[in-house]
Amino acid sequence: MRRRMHVAYAVALVMTLWGFAVPALGQGGPPAPIDPAVLAGLETRGEATFWVLFRDQADLAPAFGMRDWGERGRFVYERLVATAESSQAGVQSLLGDLNLQTRSFWIANTIEVTTGNRALPMVLAARPEVAAIIAPPTVELIVGTIGDVGSPAPGVEWNIERIRAPEVWTTYGVRGEGIVVGAIDSGVQYDHPALVAQYRGNLGGGVFDHNYSWFDPATTCGSPSDDGPCDTQWHGTATTGVMVGDDGGANQIGVAPGARFIMAAVDWTTVNLLAAMEWMLAPTDLDGHNPRPDLRPHVVNNSWGAGGGTMIYQPAVQAWAAAGIFPVFAAGNSGPACQTMLSPADYPESYATAASGLDGAITSFSSRGPALSGLAKPDLTAPGASIRTSVPIDSYQSGMEGTSFAAPHLSGTVALMLSLNPELIGDVEQIRRHLDLSALDASDLSCGGDPWRNNVWGEGRLDAFAAASLALVDGFESGNTDGWSAVVP
Q: Rounded to two decimals, what is the model's pTM?
């Protein structure tokens, strides 16, 4: 206790010397922890960028009982914004008086600050509403290798066949219609022959409206990027192809070609990732105004991650789940060592996808669990090697490898499930249960776990047909059988 008082008085002295108003230290407990990297940056470079995390988190529990998609989205959005505005007000006022460069985010209740003031982190840590001061995490695009230009398969690509997606199309008559998948990636060639029909901004007849379907916080496609999506790194075009790609001819590369997609392009910085996560929950027009939570996607595919145990993104993933968005993340390409899962894939709320190859074995690069928290991860495994898919410009390439190509198989499967049984829309936990139960067990205990749930394969191999069939049973059990005679085998 005496040491805590010494810390409090030391902070108060520094604040007084620097001319800051001193809060009533001791009433709210000890100062919030400060990441040593923040102080080191100020010491060595004379400037640092850091994140202020706030204690208050919005109570989103009532959202899980809401059935109306629009009402639920508005509730989550408004509750998050209100909580952020109220809890950040004091710090925002202080930072405004100092004329500092800042960026506030409601989805994770946090503020990014850039300063050369060496006392400021201690000043902020002393405030009772502040939970922690952390350095920006290092984020990476989970990208493997890109292969050679590939010729189309005689029919559907092998990986789509492997997860039995075509059996869903032919048996149940759905290909993802009525469902929107979102992606946070490098961008997309929206007018690619295999993707243009699936882009939500396509109004038909050669007319496009990119409002609410395209977001570019890093202005990677120009400033402003009003002309629509681009893809400077090819990756987003490739992952979107696995989710929904089909040119209506020989190139049948996607799991759910009847679904529509929207895209947020990012540069793998935390500030733009959080901006993209906010936009997915409440898409805006091209000017960043007039948010429409009712236009949020049903599932979001993510091929990015930070080091395991990075928690700054967890409130955002929790907010997605509260809004009914199913969060899919690539596990990472840091295998075969154990405990190499990336964040947010290692969160309880995320559904993490590992990668298997053409031979049916787990790939050597696929990240393994458990999470640093001890949680069993990944959740499931899908094809992630020898993948043929779309790339800019108007082309296709084969030999793609990475868990980033496994994840869109899962996202596409969720679109098929929701298209078959719209009663599942927003029921994140039930979707998770169906995926878990329908997976084909694969035992590998080299990183711990059980034969039916281990830290290499998760629940096992993705089976889209089995997952969709469970969704169909759900529909009959709920009594919602209107109009289903056309899709019952």
A: 0.91
